[in-house]
């Protein structure tokens, strides 16, 4: 009987270890091990934090991690000469929460679960040096570095319902789908003095909003450019078009996206910075995006100092 | 002397035998009479109406200072955090829940553990609202409680083994259960907790014996309610009649109004009272309208979930003033006439007295020192009269700057938060655990969410006074007068209990269980339990003696927020214990 219980316990423990990403913490103390650069190299793997169910950046197909950020994570691991391991991130209410839960402290329900590096972290010096009401730096526990892409907003529309879309103003009269609690949601619900508000339809994600457009429930969808491009690539969505609109009134029209590590792991950061810098400058990142049929923009960070031909190479134009 | 001692032993032996053969069933009658029966506590609220009043009077203002601990029990593990539960006691066994959806059965005489149940929580779970649990329900041979992954679990009272487990909502969509369920006429009644967006609150009833769902009632206008018969869902009317009356666009589909604190029941009018949370999204400028039934109290028919009436405390909420706080039925003496009334102390700083038969507003008054967001209440309807400039600004109107900072008092954590107040029919007073704090809110120009630019609000919460935040108040519901107050350095976050011995009990984050004179507010007793007290005390009678129990374990929402308040509470240590007290026999008055 006792042996049976033991076997069962082992089975359960094994099942749990498999379900979680990687159990490399101290089981007795329920703490994450401090995976510094040397520990990562010795362990032979890099845990890369990416958002769960977030196409085209990071998602799962048949149990296998896929997407732009997953492909980039594999290149980062390769650059360090170690194996890639995925660390799925369930998004919390804001970036600060995600950094706390996944990069420096761990979520209180699962303290051992930390990523070595997190991807798709907006690279914004104003954000990085934000102070709280008492003057403390809010993000002092992390280092934000390695910008690798510039992201922006995009609308797609159904030409069967709308002849053309050259201004968001048309959505005063036609329903438009957004992911709930995102900037497109707030922007369209309050824009033009609230005149679009009644036309805004809320969905769990951009994919669900496209499904609604395919059913004829909405005439357009607003999301991040890569999300929109990804949906437009799907054969079932071939008839939908990318609109050529501006977004007057949005303060951050485009922003750079990079990496984050815990502030005590700077040696790892320097190593990853070297890898990602090469990927951007060589045009390898542009090629990754092109392979997925997504438009790519070099981060603003590089635009400030790259010569025109170097910029063109990074942009994948030669 | 000797024979009496022998007699007690025999009695204890017989009882032990009974328990080992299976605990006596908890009946609907036990539950309905809980407020009057002193030998057990079988409901959250010490009675379904939630008055938290005990007719026991062995403990008095004269002898409470001799109260002594008889046992203490540790929940163990590293899973500390906030212990917000209220224990139940039946047949010499205490049933209590702890953080992280754990339940314990403890020998109420010795503090020895009988069994422990740890809900197995799924990986990657992200509960919205900390990992607290506020208590269990008892029915028949079962202990029933809600879990962080939004399930109801029924355990065998003797063994702690699961008898049924039912999913109430999808934890992946952001739902959880932290409140104690309630049993009314054989039905388990529960609400749901939820994150800030994408959810819709609801109240549901399940068969306590089988776990079968009986009815569901969404708390946002436009959603259909159902009753279930023979496995079939039968439509039972749309909440609020139809969609879109008080919400723009399709926002009613994700309107929030989570029922996260559970409810109370009034047998007199056969009505459930449930409060609802704030509306979503948080930016009120996106959703002009009253946004029913957010930040409201709902009167619900326990048989089919129909809404009898509603009272909205904060229409078009823009401050995160949840309307979940308990509505307590009591008989109000109004000019010599007895009125069937009910009272609640809202997050928004106002205390409301309603007619519990129809929801009519009788009176309302502030129970905190300062309210900035409203100038007062309409004397006829109880609707707030908004103060100009008191509403946080629209972030989409900010052109990249921080914008104007709006001061709001009370802060979003409320004049009173989840911690239940108590009503003493002897003194006619409500004992309200409240806090004096304010918040600054501004539009946050630099904000990101899930890899994308976002429009957020920045806020900081700060004490309204230099030397105290918490205030335990005795409020007179007939006049709105504060009869006495006790000021506490740290914010009060624990429930209150009052007794016929003219005592008021509550705990403090500093670790004390305290007792006060119910008439004067004089502090008569304090005992430090080693960690902050944020649970709700109970009292009961066992072997002819009056016992008091309370949980100790600092946590809950307060330490999750930074700012100036954090300075007051950051050195408090976590814990996880049950403390049980009684008077030494020779200290009991011999009258």
From TrEMBL, chain A:
<comment type="similarity">
    <text>Belongs to the bacterial solute-binding protein 3 family.</text>
</comment>
<dbReference type="Pfam" id="PF00497">
    <property type="entry name" value="SBP_bac_3"/>
</dbReference>
<feature type="signal peptide">
    <location>
        <begin position="1"/>
        <end position="19"/>
    </location>
</feature>
<feature type="domain" description="Solute-binding protein family 3/N-terminal">
    <location>
        <begin position="46"/>
        <end position="289"/>
    </location>
</feature>
<dbReference type="InterPro" id="IPR001638">
    <property type="entry name" value="Solute-binding_3/MltF_N"/>
</dbReference>
<keyword id="KW-0732">Signal</keyword>
<protein>
    <submittedName>
        <fullName>Amino acid ABC transporter substrate-binding protein</fullName>
    </submittedName>
</protein>
TrEMBL record, chain B:
<feature type="region of interest" description="Disordered">
    <location>
        <begin position="383"/>
        <end position="405"/>
    </location>
</feature>
<keyword id="KW-0634">PQQ</keyword>
<feature type="active site" description="Proton acceptor">
    <location>
        <position position="320"/>
    </location>
</feature>
<feature type="binding site">
    <location>
        <position position="196"/>
    </location>
    <ligand>
        <name>Ca(2+)</name>
    </ligand>
</feature>
<protein>
    <submittedName>
        <fullName>Dehydrogenase</fullName>
    </submittedName>
</protein>
<dbReference type="GO" id="GO:0016020">
    <property type="term" value="C:membrane"/>
</dbReference>
<feature type="signal peptide">
    <location>
        <begin position="1"/>
        <end position="25"/>
    </location>
</feature>
<keyword id="KW-0732">Signal</keyword>
<dbReference type="InterPro" id="IPR017512">
    <property type="entry name" value="PQQ_MeOH/EtOH_DH"/>
</dbReference>
<dbReference type="InterPro" id="IPR011047">
    <property type="entry name" value="Quinoprotein_ADH-like_sf"/>
</dbReference>
<dbReference type="InterPro" id="IPR034119">
    <property type="entry name" value="ADHI"/>
</dbReference>
<dbReference type="Pfam" id="PF01011">
    <property type="entry name" value="PQQ"/>
</dbReference>
<feature type="binding site">
    <location>
        <position position="320"/>
    </location>
    <ligand>
        <name>Ca(2+)</name>
    </ligand>
</feature>
<keyword id="KW-0479">Metal-binding</keyword>
<feature type="domain" description="Pyrrolo-quinoline quinone repeat">
    <location>
        <begin position="43"/>
        <end position="361"/>
    </location>
</feature>
<feature type="binding site">
    <location>
        <begin position="417"/>
        <end position="418"/>
    </location>
    <ligand>
        <name>pyrroloquinoline quinone</name>
    </ligand>
</feature>
<feature type="binding site">
    <location>
        <position position="84"/>
    </location>
    <ligand>
        <name>pyrroloquinoline quinone</name>
    </ligand>
</feature>
<feature type="binding site">
    <location>
        <position position="278"/>
    </location>
    <ligand>
        <name>Ca(2+)</name>
    </ligand>
</feature>
<comment type="similarity">
    <text>Belongs to the bacterial PQQ dehydrogenase family.</text>
</comment>
<dbReference type="GO" id="GO:0020037">
    <property type="term" value="F:heme binding"/>
</dbReference>
<feature type="domain" description="Pyrrolo-quinoline quinone repeat">
    <location>
        <begin position="490"/>
        <end position="548"/>
    </location>
</feature>
<feature type="disulfide bond">
    <location>
        <begin position="128"/>
        <end position="129"/>
    </location>
</feature>
């Amino acid at each position: 009987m006792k042996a049976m219980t033991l076997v069962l316990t082992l089975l359960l423990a094994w099942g749990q270890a498999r379900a979680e990403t990687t159990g490399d913490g101290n089981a007795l103390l329920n703490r994450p091990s401090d995976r510094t650069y040397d520990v990562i190299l010795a362990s032979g793997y890099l845990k890369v934090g990416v958002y769960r169910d977030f196409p085209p950046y990071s998602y799962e197909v048949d149990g296998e991690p896929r997407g732009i950020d997953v492909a980039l994570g594999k290149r980062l691991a390769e650059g360090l000469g170690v194996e890639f391991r995925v660390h799925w991130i369930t998004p919390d209410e804001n970036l600060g929460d995600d950094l706390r839960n996944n990069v420096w402290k761990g979520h209180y329900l699962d303290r051992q679960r930390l990523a070595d590096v997190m991807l798709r972290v907006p690279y914004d010096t104003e954000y990085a040096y934000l102070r709280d009401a008492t003057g403390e730096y809010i993000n002092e526990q992390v280092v934000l570095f390695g910008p690798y892409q510039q992201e922006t907003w995009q609308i797609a529309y159904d030409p069967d319902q709308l002849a053309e879309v050259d201004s968001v103003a048309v959505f005063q009269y036609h329903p438009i789908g957004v992911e709930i609690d995102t900037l497109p949601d707030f922007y369209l619900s309050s824009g033009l003095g609230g005149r679009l508000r009644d036309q805004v339809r809320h969905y769990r994600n951009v994919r669900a909003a496209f499904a609604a457009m395919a059913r004829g429930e909405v005439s357009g969808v607003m999301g991040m450019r890569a999300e929109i491009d990804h949906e437009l690539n799907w054969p079932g969505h071939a008839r939908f078009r990318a609109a050529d609109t501006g977004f007057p009134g949005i303060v951050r029209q485009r922003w750079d996206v990079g990496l984050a590590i815990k502030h005590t792991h700077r040696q790892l950061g320097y190593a990853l910075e070297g890898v990602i810098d090469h990927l951007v400058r060589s045009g390898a990142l542009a090629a990754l995006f092109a392979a997925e049929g997504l438009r790519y923009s070099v981060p603003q960070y590089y635009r400030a100092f790259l010569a025109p031909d170097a910029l063109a190479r990074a942009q994948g134009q030669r | 002397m000797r024979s009496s001692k022998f007699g007690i032993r025999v009695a204890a032996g017989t009882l032990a035998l009974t328990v080992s053969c299976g605990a006596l069933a908890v009946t609907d009658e036990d539950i309905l009479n809980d407020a009057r029966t002193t030998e057990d506590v079988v409901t959250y609220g010490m009675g379904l109406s939630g008055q938290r009043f005990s007719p026991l009077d062995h403990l008095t203002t004269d002898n409470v200072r001799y109260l002594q601990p008889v046992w203490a029990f540790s929940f163990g593990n590293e899973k500390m955090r906030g212990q917000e539960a209220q224990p139940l006691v039946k047949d010499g066994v205490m049933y209590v829940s702890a953080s992280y959806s754990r339940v314990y059965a403890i020998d109420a005489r010795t503090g020895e553990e009988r069994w422990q149940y740890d809900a197995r929580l799924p990986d990657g779970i992200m509960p919205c609202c900390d990992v607290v649990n506020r208590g269990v329900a008892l029915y028949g041979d079962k202990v029933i409680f809600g879990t962080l992954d939004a399930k109801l679990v029924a355990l065998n009272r003797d063994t702690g083994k699961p008898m049924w487990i039912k999913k109430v909502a999808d934890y992946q969509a952001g739902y959880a259960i932290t409140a104690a369920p309630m049993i009314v006429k054989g039905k388990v009644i529960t609400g749901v907790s939820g994150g800030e967006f994408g959810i819709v609150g609801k109240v549901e009833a399940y068969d306590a014996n089988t776990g079968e769902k009986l009815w569901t009632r969404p708390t946002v206008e436009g959603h259909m309610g159902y009753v279930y018969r023979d496995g079939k869902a039968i439509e039972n009317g749309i909440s609020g009649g139809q969609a879109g009356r008080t919400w723009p666009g399709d926002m009613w589909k994700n309107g929030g109004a989570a029922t996260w604190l559970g409810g109370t029941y009034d047998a007199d009018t056969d009505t459930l009272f449930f409060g609802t949370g704030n509306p979503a999204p948080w930016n009120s400028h996106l959703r002009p309208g009253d946004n029913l039934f957010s930040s409201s109290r709902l009167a619900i028919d326990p048989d089919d979930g129909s809404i009898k009436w509603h009272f909205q405390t904060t229409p078009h909420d823009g401050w995160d003033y949840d309307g979940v706080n308990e509505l307590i039925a009591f008989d109000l003496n109004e000019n010599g006439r007895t009125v069937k009334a009910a009272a609640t102390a809202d997050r928004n700083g106002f205390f409301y007295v309603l007619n519990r038969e129809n929801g009519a507003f009788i009176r309302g008054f502030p129970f905190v020192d300062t309210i900035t967001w409203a100038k007062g209440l309409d004397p006829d309807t109880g609707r707030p009269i908004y103060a100009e400039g008191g509403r946080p600004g629209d972030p989409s109107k900010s052109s990249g700057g921080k914008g104007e900072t709006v001061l709001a008092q009370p802060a979003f954590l409320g004049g009173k938060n989840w911690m239940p107040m108590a009503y003493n029919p002897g003194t006619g007073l409500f004992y309200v655990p409240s806090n004096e704090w304010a918040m600054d809110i501004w539009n946050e120009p630099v904000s990101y969410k899930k890899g994308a630019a976002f429009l957020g609000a920045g806020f900081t919460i700060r004490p309204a006074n230099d030397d105290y935040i918490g205030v335990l108040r005795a409020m007179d519901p007939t006049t709105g007068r504060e009869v006495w107050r006790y000021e506490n350095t740290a914010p009060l976050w624990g429930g209150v209990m009052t007794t016929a011995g003219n005592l008021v009990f509550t705990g403090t984050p500093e670790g004390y269980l305290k007792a006060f004179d119910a008439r004067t507010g004089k502090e008569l007793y304090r005992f430090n339990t080693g960690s902050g007290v944020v649970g709700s005390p109970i009292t009961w009678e066992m072997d002819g003696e009056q016992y008091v129990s309370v949980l100790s374990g600092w946590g809950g929402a307060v330490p999750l927020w930074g700012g100036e308040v954090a300075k007051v509470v950051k050195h408090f240590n976590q814990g996880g214990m049950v403390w049980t007290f009684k008077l030494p026999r020779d200290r009991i008055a011999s009258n």
